[in-house]
Design a protein that fits this description.
Blueprint (H helix, E strand, L loop, with lengths): L2 E8 L8 E7 L6 H11 L3 E8 L2 E7 L4 E2 L3 H13 L9 E5 L2 E8 L2 E7 L4 E2 L6 H5 L5 E4 L3 E5 L3 H5 L5 H5 L5 E7 L7 E7 L4 E4 L6 H12 L3 E6 L5 E8 L2 E6 L1 E9 L2
Parallel strand pairs: 2-3, 4-6, 11-12, 13-15
Antiparallel strand pairs: 1-2, 1-18, 3-4, 4-5, 6-7, 7-8, 8-17, 9-10, 10-11, 12-13, 13-14, 15-16, 16-17
């Protein structure tokens, strides 16, 4: 039986902006090799696979190259699809069993609110080759369990980055979050995210990165509620609320494509 695939642009209200994710809602578990091949075929930063489990859904995320333990924009897309396709009623919360524990999503007027674990970055020395690979001088360097987080001096420096992706792929963690203070009054900080080692040179809008950006900028700005702009070519807006060891991420989503896998 053909498997429906729905493509959703996350962290945007406008089609063809934000971060696209493919979503497959399945009747039951699927073979890992098949899921990885589908993700490679879709060739998006993440493809989400979910099926009913217990009182919610089992959710897994695959890049074109590997399975990952946490993905914000594909979780947002999955919740959007569950409501839009009638798997859940509009006022029902979406509950996901994942490699990062139980994650939930609920509608918050025009936004979708995700409840994610906080990833508090710890200051660290820059690994060898980081500055050369990034092409900029860091203001500070920190890391989480999977990513480095580098602050640069300004939005101009951030937007003009042209990293050496091969060199970044050799770094010992999965990805590199780069951030700067905001110049525009509508935002508190800017960011970009690079993960060539995971098959993604630059991710358009990275929800999971904001699990670290939220605590990082909360400590610097003395604010628990902030709005970030990820300054990729597509761009996207993520509202962040830091709540102890959790981070709430708020974003919008729009469906752009429905199709069927024939194999």
């Amino acid at each position: 039986m053909p498997q429906q695939v729905i493509q959703v642009d996350s962290f945007t209200a406008e089609p063809f902006l934000g971060n696209p994710a493919a979503v497959c809602v399945m009747a039951g578990p699927a073979d890992e090799i098949w899921m990885q091949r589908v993700a490679a075929e879709m060739n998006l930063s993440e493809t989400a696979f979910l099926h009913p489990e217990d009182a919610g859904y089992r959710l897994r995320w695959f890049t074109p190259a590997m399975e990952v333990s946490l993905c914000g924009h594909a979780t947002l897309a999955s919740a959007h699809v569950l409501w839009e396709e009638g798997h859940l009623q509009p006022r029902e919360a979406a509950t996901f069993q994942t490699a990062s524990g139980i994650l939930t999503a609920q509608r918050d007027r025009a936004w979708i609110r995700l409840d994610f674990p906080a990833k508090v970055p710890q200051a660290t020395a820059a690994p060898a080759g980081l500055e050369a690979a990034l092409g900029a001088d860091p203001v500070s360097v920190a890391k989480t369990d999977r990513d480095f987080l580098v602050e640069v001096s300004s939005e101009v420096v951030l937007r003009n980055l042209s990293p050496d992706f091969r060199a970044l792929a050799a770094l010992p963690l999965q990805g590199l979050i780069v951030t700067s203070p905001a110049a525009a009054p509508d935002f508190d900080f800017y960011s970009r995210y690079f993960a060539p080692g995971a098959g993604i040179d630059e991710d358009p809008v990275t929800g999971s990165a904001h699990c670290a950006l939220g605590p990082y900028w909360a400590a610097k700005l003395g604010k628990l509620e902030m709005t970030g702009y990820q300054a990729s070519r597509r761009g996207g807006i993520v509202r962040v609320e830091v709540r102890g060891d959790r981070v709430h991420l708020l974003g919008k989503a729009v469906t752009v494509l429905r199709g069927q896998l024939l194999v």
